[in-house]
Amino acid sequence: MFEQSVMVPGDVRRGAQVGPSRGGLPTATQLLCSFQGTKFADHDLLRSAHALAVLHTSRAGMNDARLVAEVDNRRRELVEDIDDWVHERAPLRHDGLIHIETLGAVIDRMAWGWVDANQAVETDGARDHHARKRWHRLAELIDGYTELITDVVGGRRRLPARV
After folding, report:
1. Which of 27, 38, 132, 151 could lock onto 157 through a cystine, CB 3.0 to 4.6 A?
2. Tens digit of pLDDT for each residue in 48-68?
3. What are the backbone angles phi and psi of residue 95, rounded to the nearest 5°?
4. 22: helix, coil or strand?
5. Which of 118, 100, 7, 9 is nearest to 53 (CA)?
Protein backbone atom coordinates (compact mmCIF):
# COMPACT_ATOMS: atom_id res chain seq x y z
CA MET A 1 0.00 0.00 0.00
CA PHE A 2 1.08 3.56 -0.48
CA GLU A 3 2.58 5.65 2.27
CA GLN A 4 -0.23 8.19 2.25
CA SER A 5 0.08 11.78 3.04
CA VAL A 6 -1.67 15.01 3.62
CA MET A 7 -4.41 14.18 1.16
CA VAL A 8 -6.68 12.42 3.66
CA PRO A 9 -9.27 14.79 5.15
CA GLY A 10 -9.20 14.90 8.92
CA ASP A 11 -5.55 13.77 8.86
CA VAL A 12 -5.82 10.52 10.81
CA ARG A 13 -2.09 10.42 11.54
CA ARG A 14 -2.53 13.17 14.11
CA GLY A 15 -5.56 11.52 15.68
CA ALA A 16 -8.09 13.97 14.24
CA GLN A 17 -11.70 12.89 14.50
CA VAL A 18 -13.43 11.30 11.55
CA GLY A 19 -16.98 12.62 11.27
CA PRO A 20 -19.98 10.48 12.15
CA SER A 21 -21.61 8.35 9.51
CA ARG A 22 -24.97 9.23 8.03
CA GLY A 23 -27.70 6.72 8.60
CA GLY A 24 -25.16 3.95 9.11
CA LEU A 25 -23.40 4.72 5.82
CA PRO A 26 -19.73 5.66 6.13
CA THR A 27 -18.66 9.19 5.38
CA ALA A 28 -16.26 9.96 2.55
CA THR A 29 -13.52 10.56 5.13
CA GLN A 30 -14.11 7.13 6.61
CA LEU A 31 -13.85 5.60 3.13
CA LEU A 32 -10.61 7.43 2.42
CA CYS A 33 -9.19 6.22 5.73
CA SER A 34 -10.15 2.66 4.81
CA PHE A 35 -8.48 3.02 1.39
CA GLN A 36 -5.38 4.23 3.19
CA GLY A 37 -5.47 1.28 5.54
CA THR A 38 -6.49 3.00 8.75
CA LYS A 39 -9.70 2.80 10.77
CA PHE A 40 -11.53 0.12 8.80
CA ALA A 41 -11.33 -3.13 10.77
CA ASP A 42 -14.49 -2.60 12.84
CA HIS A 43 -16.91 -2.06 9.92
CA ASP A 44 -17.82 -4.65 7.26
CA LEU A 45 -18.39 -2.10 4.52
CA LEU A 46 -15.09 -0.34 5.27
CA ARG A 47 -13.22 -3.66 5.23
CA SER A 48 -14.62 -4.29 1.75
CA ALA A 49 -13.68 -0.74 0.68
CA HIS A 50 -10.13 -1.31 1.93
CA ALA A 51 -9.93 -4.58 -0.01
CA LEU A 52 -11.08 -2.77 -3.17
CA ALA A 53 -8.24 -0.25 -2.83
CA VAL A 54 -5.73 -3.07 -2.31
CA LEU A 55 -7.05 -4.86 -5.41
CA HIS A 56 -6.90 -1.68 -7.52
CA THR A 57 -3.32 -1.15 -6.37
CA SER A 58 -2.40 -4.70 -7.38
CA ARG A 59 -4.29 -4.50 -10.65
CA ALA A 60 -2.53 -1.31 -11.74
CA GLY A 61 0.76 -3.16 -12.19
CA MET A 62 -0.58 -6.36 -13.74
CA ASN A 63 0.09 -7.41 -17.31
CA ASP A 64 -1.33 -10.93 -17.14
CA ALA A 65 -4.90 -10.91 -18.47
CA ARG A 66 -5.81 -13.96 -16.38
CA LEU A 67 -4.69 -12.25 -13.16
CA VAL A 68 -6.52 -9.05 -14.12
CA ALA A 69 -9.69 -11.09 -14.66
CA GLU A 70 -9.29 -12.72 -11.23
CA VAL A 71 -8.85 -9.33 -9.58
CA ASP A 72 -11.86 -7.94 -11.43
CA ASN A 73 -13.94 -10.94 -10.35
CA ARG A 74 -12.94 -10.38 -6.72
CA ARG A 75 -13.79 -6.67 -7.07
CA ARG A 76 -17.23 -7.63 -8.37
CA GLU A 77 -17.73 -9.86 -5.33
CA LEU A 78 -16.72 -7.04 -2.99
CA VAL A 79 -19.09 -4.61 -4.74
CA GLU A 80 -21.89 -7.16 -4.24
CA ASP A 81 -20.89 -7.53 -0.56
CA ILE A 82 -21.15 -3.77 -0.13
CA ASP A 83 -24.51 -3.70 -1.90
CA ASP A 84 -25.76 -6.54 0.32
CA TRP A 85 -24.60 -4.66 3.43
CA VAL A 86 -26.39 -1.50 2.27
CA HIS A 87 -29.57 -3.42 1.46
CA GLU A 88 -29.61 -5.11 4.88
CA ARG A 89 -28.64 -2.17 7.11
CA ALA A 90 -28.90 1.24 5.54
CA PRO A 91 -32.07 3.31 5.65
CA LEU A 92 -33.47 2.73 2.19
CA ARG A 93 -36.59 4.38 0.88
CA HIS A 94 -38.56 3.73 -2.23
CA ASP A 95 -39.88 7.21 -3.00
CA GLY A 96 -36.77 9.22 -4.02
CA LEU A 97 -35.22 9.55 -7.44
CA ILE A 98 -33.23 6.46 -8.33
CA HIS A 99 -29.44 6.76 -8.52
CA ILE A 100 -27.84 5.16 -11.56
CA GLU A 101 -25.23 3.09 -9.67
CA THR A 102 -25.23 0.93 -6.59
CA LEU A 103 -23.24 2.20 -3.62
CA GLY A 104 -20.78 -0.65 -4.13
CA ALA A 105 -20.04 0.55 -7.67
CA VAL A 106 -19.59 4.13 -6.42
CA ILE A 107 -17.15 2.99 -3.72
CA ASP A 108 -15.25 0.88 -6.26
CA ARG A 109 -14.80 3.96 -8.48
CA MET A 110 -13.67 5.98 -5.46
CA ALA A 111 -11.13 3.28 -4.54
CA TRP A 112 -9.74 3.37 -8.08
CA GLY A 113 -9.66 7.17 -8.04
CA TRP A 114 -7.75 7.13 -4.76
CA VAL A 115 -5.20 4.59 -6.05
CA ASP A 116 -4.82 6.42 -9.37
CA ALA A 117 -4.26 9.79 -7.67
CA ASN A 118 -1.70 8.38 -5.27
CA GLN A 119 0.16 6.55 -8.02
CA ALA A 120 0.32 9.77 -10.05
CA VAL A 121 1.81 11.62 -7.08
CA GLU A 122 4.33 8.84 -6.46
CA THR A 123 5.33 8.71 -10.12
CA ASP A 124 5.16 12.35 -11.18
CA GLY A 125 5.18 14.35 -7.95
CA ALA A 126 2.43 16.35 -6.28
CA ARG A 127 2.99 19.43 -8.45
CA ASP A 128 2.58 17.57 -11.74
CA HIS A 129 -0.39 18.72 -13.82
CA HIS A 130 -1.68 15.17 -14.42
CA ALA A 131 -1.36 14.25 -10.75
CA ARG A 132 -3.32 17.37 -9.78
CA LYS A 133 -6.04 16.46 -12.32
CA ARG A 134 -6.33 13.01 -10.77
CA TRP A 135 -6.66 14.50 -7.28
CA HIS A 136 -9.30 16.88 -8.62
CA ARG A 137 -11.19 13.91 -10.10
CA LEU A 138 -10.97 12.12 -6.73
CA ALA A 139 -12.29 15.25 -4.99
CA GLU A 140 -15.27 15.24 -7.38
CA LEU A 141 -15.94 11.58 -6.54
CA ILE A 142 -15.77 12.41 -2.83
CA ASP A 143 -18.22 15.29 -3.26
CA GLY A 144 -20.55 13.09 -5.31
CA TYR A 145 -20.47 10.34 -2.69
CA THR A 146 -21.17 12.80 0.12
CA GLU A 147 -24.10 14.28 -1.78
CA LEU A 148 -25.41 10.82 -2.63
CA ILE A 149 -25.44 9.48 0.93
CA THR A 150 -26.94 12.74 2.19
CA ASP A 151 -29.73 12.44 -0.38
CA VAL A 152 -30.26 8.72 0.28
CA VAL A 153 -30.57 9.26 4.03
CA GLY A 154 -32.79 12.30 3.44
CA GLY A 155 -35.08 10.33 1.11
CA ARG A 156 -34.39 12.50 -1.96
CA ARG A 157 -32.61 9.67 -3.79
CA ARG A 158 -32.65 5.92 -3.59
CA LEU A 159 -30.20 3.27 -4.63
CA PRO A 160 -31.00 0.70 -7.32
CA ALA A 161 -32.22 -2.69 -6.18
CA ARG A 162 -29.82 -5.57 -5.87
CA VAL A 163 -29.67 -7.88 -8.84
Report:
1. 151
2. 999 999 999 999 989 999 999
3. -110, -10
4. strand
5. 118
